[in-house]
Amino acid sequence: MDYILTPSLLVVIPALNVLGLWIKGKKTIDMFGEATYPHSKVKPKFIPLVLFSIAVLVCIATSLTSLELEGWKLILQSITNGLMQGLICTGVSVFGYDLVKGLAK
Questions:
Q1: Is residue 2 part of a domain?
Q2: What is the dihedral of CA 53, 54, 59, 65, to 10 degrees?
Q3: Does 52 map to a domain?
Q4: Is residue 1 pLDDT above 60, yes or no?
């Protein structure tokens, strides 16, 4: 089984960045000087989990549609491959965002 990220899934990484920024919403400073996100329904600490679940679903769907599946072993292999590729996409997206954010300070 090959866990290397396929070129067709490279578009998922910037899409996750945009989606993460959209989920996070606009940052405001409250009266105590702390950053809050009043427009977001998701707490910032859970955004990577939301992105991970979306990336896994997209990668599994891509993996299932790109193969000719003949048996349950190939289906499980395709799901495992999609899970690992979703993990890679989310890791690169979140790490890249944190790296840019850290270098900007």
A1: no
A2: 120
A3: yes
A4: no
